[in-house]
Design brief:
heterodimer; A: 273 residues; mainly alpha; MetI-like fold; 81% helix; 0% strand; B: 262 residues; alpha/beta; Rossmann fold; 34% helix; globular; binds adenosine-5'-triphosphate; binds magnesium ion
Amino acid sequence: MSTAVAPGIRVQLTRFAIGWIGAVVLLGCWQLATARSDSAFFPTPLEIVADIHERWFSAGIGGGVLTDAFFQDVTPSLQRLALGLLVAWAVGISLGVVLGRVRTVAEYLEPLLHFMRALPGPVLLPLALVLVGTGTSMRVSLIAFGAVWPILFNTYSAVRQVPECFIDNAKVARVSRPALLFRVILPAASTGIFAGLRVSTSLGIILLIASELVAATDGIGFGLTQSQRSFQFVAMWSFIVALSLLGYVANLILSGVETRILRWHRLMAAIQD
Amino acid sequence: MSPALLEVTDLRHSYQTRQGEHTVLDGLTFSVERGEFVSIVGPSGCGKTTLLRSLSGLLRPSGGTVALGGTVIDGVPQGLAMVFQDYRGSLFPWRRVGENVEFPLLGSVPKSERRRRTEESLEAVGLAAAADRYPWQLSGGMQQRVAIARALAMRPELLLMDEPFASVDAQTRSDLEDLLLRVREQFDMTILFVTHDVDESVYLSTRVLSLSKAPTVQTADVTVPLAFPRDQITTREEGAFVTTRSEVARLIRQAGPGGLAA
Ligand SMILES: Nc1ncnc2c1ncn2[C@@H]1O[C@H](COP(=O)(O)OP(=O)(O)OP(=O)(O)O)[C@@H](O)[C@H]1O
Ligand SMILES: [Mg+2]
């Protein structure tokens, strides 16, 4: 094993280095190009970084680094996203398991669920406004409603594909129902479930921004439209960067958890290649 | 007289298919006493797996009863372990070998006892050193030994085995046969062993039952007059081995055209 892993690490490091060199070169070009132009729409990356620092991270060590604007612009969005995704994941995984394990429930619910999934999340925004109002719960339910589908259908299909022989083996061992779920079905379906988590997370971010474009008073999406309307293009870019950082960090966290939980799967796939 | 360990009475099973009812087991009656090693031989598709699934409570048969230790079973009974036909689907790929062996004990056996039994069982199949590897890092024969170790860890009174050695090479197969006879002594188990190989059934067992093609009935019940321990070379040369094997084969052929050749 160890001999097989060593070159793997070297390859990974090389890839990592190439990725960063690419990013730096790209940023350099961007800097050069924007510094030469005098279009107000395209500030230089350095200006954006300075603005981000000034805007959100300039409260000083004594002040806790984060500025008041950070708690106005970023924290509400993080809360909405986290809450919405949690609801989506909890509902999606539990309903997916039930559908995957109980054939009759699946037969009754599947057509309805496919119909509901076909509704694009942002389209429901007006409806959500009417039904749940303009508060946090509206944004959270919109994120939850939109992000639930990938995780639901991924869990459903992954659970349905759990080999029957795994279940039989567990049954002969007389394991309890919770043990069957947590020690056999969920681990066996975990690769599919994780794929669903990733897709639902990126969908959640899109819906977060969409929900913050209407009737909002804070959050990244609100800041983005505000700065755009008031022609503060550097600020607008700062919000765009904040958004992409949000997506990047969310993905990083997910990959970290996935790497831990699905270590066996990665190793197995490497052997069978 | 205490009841037999396993009593099967008029066991019947039909699968519902699109073409209608497909009768697989058509009234099987037999019993297995404590300490016996009973092999069941039958052609492919005659319902051997169906039979074992009914005996283990995984499948509710359409008719008849199965009693373990005098109690008619309804669901998976205690004191029973099973080694399945396909070792690839038996072990959980996300658990290490030791964790797989320990699996049936989780929630019912305290931790220190679990560890002791896991070590003992892996020791018994000669895989103590592989406890921290993953099943898919092992050869097929080794995986089947892990599946046996997991069954041993449950300390079953009755061990059901469904063609456990059908998909390994000949040398591994004889090694596994001898290993099975050894652990049977060590753990004092009664074994019901399904195979389609007459030689294997005679070599391993104290008694051989044979089944016809579906709809399946019993065609023979032959006692094997061979002493233990058995030896891959000398036992197979004994006159009693040769005559018993011929007897079983003849009974199978008489019972149905095609017989085991199918
Ligand atoms: N779930 C099922 N639904 C319908 N028919 C089935 C089902 N399971 C098995 N059968 C049929 O029942 C018959 C017996 O199957 P079974 O798997 O018990 O045979 P077997 O003796 O174990 O065969 P093999 O030696 O190939 O393992 C076969 O004809 C099979 O097609
Ligand atoms: Mg079978």
